[in-house]
Each structure stands twice: as structure tokens, then as C-alpha cells.
Design goal:
The structure holds two protein chains of two kinds. By secondary structure, chain A is mostly helical. Chain A has one domain: ABC transporter involved in vitamin B12 uptake, BtuC. Helices cover 70% and strands 2% of the residues of chain A. Chain A is built from 13 helices and four strands. In chain A, helix 1 packs across helix 12, helix 2 crosses helix 10 and helix 7 packs across helix 8. Chain B is mainly alpha-helical. Chain B is 75% helix and 0% strand. In chain B, helix 8 packs across helix 9. Chain B starts with 8 loop residues before the first helix and ends with a helix. Classes of the chains: A mainly alpha, B mainly alpha. At the A-B interface, helix 4, helix 11 and helix 13 of A face helix 5, helix 6, helix 13, helix 15 and helix 16 of B.
Chain lengths: 324, 365
């Protein structure tokens, strides 16, 4: 019974941690499948987290915050597109520039506007955050271990954006594999010349893809600052954008495997939090840092071809020049 | 549209970075104005904070030392056609090597500790870059992604070591004991006479000279040796390199190890020169500043030294801003850094085309 409760709580924590990761990874999916490297997830997410928290703090509405977060991330995505698609700049450099710029800009604007040492005010007013939704009968069901506790902890009790993230996986899969837009998007990431020959504007498609990735990063950022916590703090993404990119690679650039990778990476995070200083039988205390480094090690191993094989979109990272 | 005309060499190397810098500073001034402070006053404070006194100059050059090492590291990989985002992790692990030598041999003579510390820093940093390099050369895994992953793995490893193994017993914060005095880099303040007195309160130390020497050595290596020639051939045309009998895989490994070794030297300045112990996250972003420095310095040692001094000035001047302008702090410098990377690295075509057109018009008259 005790172990069972711990496992259920661990899985519930996994779902909570996975949501922003999944949103960012899906953002990366659209960007990378169109041939634009998604290193900028970190910056777009952080910018959105700041904008969402700031607007929510000022207006008192989490929904307006979400809108501001999306608008900010889309603006950053379009800036990235302007540098990499229009001016054919180096995608890695442009993305790193945006990540670094936003890492400075968030705390700078927060200090200038709120004067709280680089944070936004605590979001504790009604409607300023996306609160947990308790499903009907969840509290009553809690006392029944199976399936009541599963229902109360795993299905019920998450904030809205968690459910949104879960719903977006089949939607993303449908768009990518079942629509004309998705077919063109995948084609432009593999062979832009062929797409161009078919009379479809390559750069327009790529702009659409990065804009979609901006929208999703916007939701991911709002999820961090107005749902999972109550306000923006310096560097609050803490590498989650890179972790999402790792999950995307680990999921071999496919929606459902990416979901699996996000859940796995989130599980290591939840596990590390729970195993802090706990002595396990046989192995003793496992250093938390090793568990936290696991997603990165796994991704490197995968990239090296030791665990399965990941094949990136062929045209990933190469700008398309029409006149050639 | 015809292909943009080529810029004259001086404009490509000198003017373009300056135009990009001006654009970045202009946007930063916009942000400062948005926050209700005077951009002119902020820029004036930045300059006086960075160069206003010998102490300020000392701090500026001290920061510049870190950035020279990481800038050179990014540049040497770039010449081989590689983008090394992993300098942060390589500097972190390299510092571990330097720090271990200082902890273990600190009781010996400084002139024994110094070469051992340099070698250990370079070896640890180089080894940390070797793994992604080997994976790229032999297994084809993308070096940008693997070096990023290695930054996080390095951070986890160092936190583990500092919290559980190297921590000074009986102490709360995760840092080692202080190095013995023989393992301290001679400071500029130890110089005899007026010069020493002027720098007495700044952390500027012998590492600055070592960084300049590394820049000179890198110039010889890249432009005056056969190895450097091979490096540049692979960077510019891997297919041609194969026909010339140069193995791109081998060059990838060599370039990344040299790159990691240079980044690994950061500990000489930061740990031996200033902190005198190993502590959590001591590279504090210098690996990423190296990207900006290399881009702005056009991957040439002279340009890198100049760009490193510029960024040193921004870091030192930026920390002074906080005292006079309560609404602005050092994060502003990170914004400028990001904007410089954007305008020098990703948007250079934006500035190159109009400049080239301008020169074309002047030429045709």
C-alpha cells in the first residue's frame, strides 16, 4: 500500500514535470521537421514565461498572460526566422543569440518594471494562475486505493495546460501525417528543392513552422511561470528547452515517441527529487546528480548509435537559396 | 538580384563587426530608454566603470582573460568547420584539472605547480571535448547537440564532486579548501613600483599574459603550420580535404581537443588567479561569451583579444551600472552579449549587403 501510494504520486509528479517539456518538444518537432534547428526553444520558452507572469501580474488574468507569452515566443520565433530563413544566417548562432539575449532581457525588464530583484511579483490573486482542476468525485475516490487513487492523482488534479499538452500530441501527429500542410512540412525538411519545384514557397512554409513552434513554446513558458509556479524567476527554464530538444531527438523526431521520451525524462526528474538522500537497498544512496544527468547521457548514446538510431531530417540546418 | 559584391578586406574584418556592434548597442540603448533611464548616462557609466581607474582596467582585463581563452577555443573549432557550444563544460572540467593540481601540489614551488596546472587544465578540458569529437568523427553524431549535452553532464558531475567528494569538511557551501599560497597565480598587484600599486586591488594576474601567449600560439598554429593548413582546408571544403589526403575525422578530433584544451585554461585565471579554490559554476557563462567574442573577432587571434577586452569592459562596466542606476543591473550586459551574437553572427548578411552596395557605388564612380 505504502509503495503503491509512492508510485502513484511519483507518476503524478512525472506528468506535471512532463507537460512543459512536451509542449516545448512538440514546438521543436514542427521547427526541425521543416529544417530549422530548434536550439531556440530555451529562449522562446523563457521569454514566454516572463511575459506571461508579467502580464498576469499586471492584469490579474492568467489568460491574458498566456496570450502575452504566446505573442512573445512567436515574436522571438519570427526574429529567428528573419535571421535564418530570410537572411540565411547560421541557425545555431541565431538560436544561441536569442537564448542568451532573453536570459538577460527577462531579469532586466523585471527589475526595471517591478523592482523585485529580477523577478515578477508573486501571483497569488484569483485568476492569476492556472490552478489544478479537480475532477468530479476525485476527493471521494481518493480513499479507494485502486482505481480511486489513480483517478484522483493521475487523471484529476492537474492544471489546464497539462491536459492541453496531452491533447496536442495526437493533434500534432494528425497535422504532420494526415494533412497536406504536414506532408509539405515534412517534405521541406527533407528536400526543399523538390518542394520548390512543386511550386510551394519553401521559406513561407518554414516561417509557418517556426511560428507554430513559437505558439507552443509560448504555452510551455506560461505553463512554467503561471501554472507550475507562481511567477517568473531568473533562468527559470533551467535548460528545459535543451532537454526538450534532447527528448525530440530521443523520440526520433516523431510525436508519440517524443511523448514517451518526455515522460521518461520527466520521470528521472521526479525520481531524483524523491530519491534525494534516500538510501536504497543494495546500492545505497544514489547521487541525485547522476539521475538528473541521465537524460543527457541517454541522448548522447542514442546520437552515437549505441541505442537505436536517430536520423535527423535531411535538410536540417541548411538554409534554402532559391536562385541556386 | 546579383550576388552581393565582395567587401574589401579591411571592411570585412574591421568595419562589419563595428557596424554590428553599433546595431547591438543601439538596440540595448532602446531597452535602457524603455526602462526609463538615460541611455547616454548608462553608456558613460559603462565606459567609466570599465576604464575609469587602474583598478577598473585591472578588472576589465581580468574578465577579458577568461574570454580570450574561450574565444580562442570557439575560433579554432570554427576554422575546422565545427561549432563548439561546449566551452562552458570544457572550461568547468578543465578547471577541475587545474584545481586538483593546485590542491595536490600546492605545497611545492610555484614554478612546478604552474606547468602542471596548465597541462592538467588543458588535458581535462581537451578530454571533455574529445568524446563529442570522437562521436562526431566516427559515429556521425551532431557535435552541437552532443557538446550541449556534455555541458549539462559536466555540471552534474562537478556538482556531485563538489558536494560529495571535494568539499572542505565542516563547511556548508560546496567548495574545496583554499589552495596553498604556492598555487596562487602571481597577481598584477605584486608587480614592483607604481604599476603594482595601481593594480593592487584588482584580480588581474599572470594568466592574462598566458592568454596573450595562447593567442599568439594559435595564430602560428592556424596560419603558419601544416596542421593549421589542414585544419582550414577541412573547415572550408571537407571534400577537397579528402582528395588532398587529409582525414576530416582526424582533424575534427584534433581541432576539438585543442579547442577544449584552450577552454580548459579558464581555471588558470578564475581559480588560480582569483578564487583560489574550486567552486560551483565558476565559468559562469564565459563559455558562451566565447561564442560572441569569436564571432565579433572574426575568429582571428587579434580580433579575439580586442573583442575579449570589449566584453571584459562590458562585464566590469555593467557591474558598476547597478550602483548608479537602480533600475539596471548586470543582466543588461547579457542582453548586449546576445544582441552582438545575433548581429555579428546570424544577421551579418543583413549588414553585409548594404555595405557592399555602398562600396560598389563608391568604386564605380
Amino acid at each position: 500500500m505504502e509503495t503503491y501510494t509512492i508510485i502513484v504520486l511519483l507518476l503524478a509528479a512525472t506528468i506535471r514535470v512532463a507537460a512543459p517539456l512536451l509542449l516545448a518538444a512538440l514546438a521543436g518537432l514542427f521547427s526541425e521537421r521543416s529544417g530549422v534547428i530548434a536550439l531556440g526553444l530555451e529562449g522562446m520558452m523563457l521569454g514566454a514565461a516572463f511575459a506571461a507572469a508579467a502580464v498576469s501580474a499586471v492584469t490579474g488574468s492568467a489568460w491574458l498572460g498566456l496570450g502575452a507569452g504566446i505573442a512573445t515566443a512567436v515574436a522571438l520565433a519570427l526574429l529567428l526566422g528573419f535571421a535564418c530563413i530570410t537572411h540565411r544566417g547560421n541557425q545555431v548562432v541565431a538560436a544561441m543569440a536569442i537564448n542568451i539575449m532573453v536570459a538577460g532581457l527577462g531579469p532586466t525588464l523585471a527589475l526595471g518594471w517591478f523592482n523585485l530583484g529580477g523577478q515578477t511579483p508573486q501571483l497569488d490573486g484569483p485568476g492569476q494562475r492556472f490552478m489544478s482542476l479537480v475532477w468530479p468525485g476525485a476527493d471521494a475516490a481518493r480513499s479507494v486505493p485502486f482505481p480511486g487513487l489513480l483517478y484522483a492523482e493521475l487523471l484529476s488534479g492537474h492544471h489546464l495546460l497539462v491536459y492541453l499538452a496531452a491533447a496536442l500530441v495526437p493533434l500534432a501527429a494528425w497535422v504532420l501525417y494526415r494533412t497536406r500542410f504536414g506532408l509539405r512540412l515534412r517534405a521541406v525538411g527533407e528536400n526543399p528543392l523538390a518542394v520548390d519545384t512543386a511550386g510551394i514557397a519553401v521559406n513561407r512554409l518554414r516561417y509557418q513552422a517556426v511560428a507554430i513552434s513559437g505558439v507552443l513554446c509560448g504555452v510551455a513558458g506560461a505553463c512554467l511561470s503561471t501554472a507550475a509556479s507562481s511567477g517568473f524567476v531568473r533562468d527559470m527554464t533551467a535548460g528545459k528547452g535543451y532537454l526538450a530538444l534532447a527528448a525530440l531527438i530521443f523520440g526520433k523526431w516523431k510525436p508519440y515517441p517524443t511523448l514517451g521520451a518526455c515522460l521518461l525524462f520527466a520521470f528521472t526528474d521526479a525520481l531524483a527529487a524523491r530519491l534525494q538522500g534516500v538510501a536504497l537497498p543494495v546500492v545505497g544512496v544514489v547521487p541525485v546528480q547522476f539521475i538528473l544527468a541521465l537524460p543527457y547521457v541517454l541522448t548522447v548514446l542514442l546520437l552515437a548509435g549505441f541505442v537505436g538510431k536517430a536520423v535527423a531530417p535531411l535538410a536540417l540546418g541548411t538554409p534554402y537559396a532559391k536562385e541556386k | 538580384m546579383s550576388a552581393p559584391r565582395k567587401l574589401p578586406r579591411w571592411a570585412d574584418l574591421g568595419l562589419l563587426p563595428l557596424v554590428s556592434l553599433a546595431a547591438a548597442l543601439l538596440v540595448s540603448c532602446g531597452v535602457i530608454a524603455l526602462l526609463g533611464e538615460s541611455p547616454v548616462q548608462a553608456m558613460r557609466l559603462l565606459v567609466s566603470g570599465a576604464f575609469g581607474s587602474p583598478e577598473a582596467v585591472g578588472y576589465t582585463l581580468y574578465y577579458a582573460t577568461n574570454f580570450i581563452f574561450t574565444g580562442l577555443a570557439v575560433a579554432v573549432a570554427y576554422h575546422a568547420g565545427l561549432f563548439n557550444i561546449g566551452c562552458e563544460g570544457q572550461a568547468y572540467i578543465g578547471g577541475l584539472g587545474t584545481g586538483l593540481v593546485c590542491l595536490g601540489l600546492g605545497h611545492l614551488s610555484f614554478w612546478l605547480v604552474l606547468p602542471a596546472a596548465v597541462l592538467a587544465g588543458a588535458a581535462f578540458g581537451g578530454a571533455w571535448a574529445l568524446i563529442p569529437a570522437w562521436l562526431q568523427a566516427r559515429r556521425g553524431s551532431h557535435i552541437v547537440i552532443t557538446t550541449i549535452m556534455f555541458n549539462f553532464i559536466a555540471a552534474a558531475l562537478m556538482t556531485y564532486l563538489l558536494v560529495n567528494v571535494l568539499i572542505n569538511p565542516g563547511q556548508q557551501s560546496p567548495e574545496t579548501r583554499e589552495f596553498a599560497a604556492h598555487a596562487w597565480m602571481p597577481a598584477a598587484g605584486d608587480l614592483p613600483g607604481r604599476l603594482g600599486a595601481a593594480f593592487a586591488t584588482s584580480p588581474l594576474n599572470l594568466s592574462f599574459v598566458l592568454a596573450l601567449a595562447a593567442a599568439a600560439a594559435l595564430w602560428v598554429y592556424v596560419w603558419r603550420t601544416r596542421w593549421g593548413y589542414e585544419l582550414r582546408v577541412v573547415g572550408q571544403n571537407p571534400a577537397a580535404a579528402v582528395y588532398a589526403g587529409i582525414s576530416p575525422g582526424r582533424i575534427t578530433v584534433v581541432a576539438m581537443v585543442v579547442s577544449g584544451a584552450l577552454a580548459g585554461c579558464l581555471g588558470l585565471n578564475e581559480l588560480m588567479g582569483s578564487q583560489h579554490r574550486i567552486l560551483i559554476d565558476f565559468p559562469s557563462g564565459a563559455g558562451f561569451v566565447g561564442i560572441a567574442v569569436a564571432l565579433m573577432g572574426r575568429n582571428h587571434p587579434v580580433g579575439i583579444v580586442l573583442a575579449a577586452v570589449l566584453f571584459g569592459a562590458l562585464y566590469q562596466g555593467g557591474s558598476q551600472l547597478t550602483f548608479d542606476l537602480p533600475r539596471i543591473n548586470r543582466d543588461m550586459v547579457v542582453v548586449i552579449q546576445g544582441l552582438v551574437i545575433l548581429s555579428c553572427g546570424a544577421l551579418e548578411n543583413l549588414f553585409r549587403a548594404p555595405l557592399a552596395r555602398l562600396f560598389g557605388r563608391v568604386d564605380s564612380k
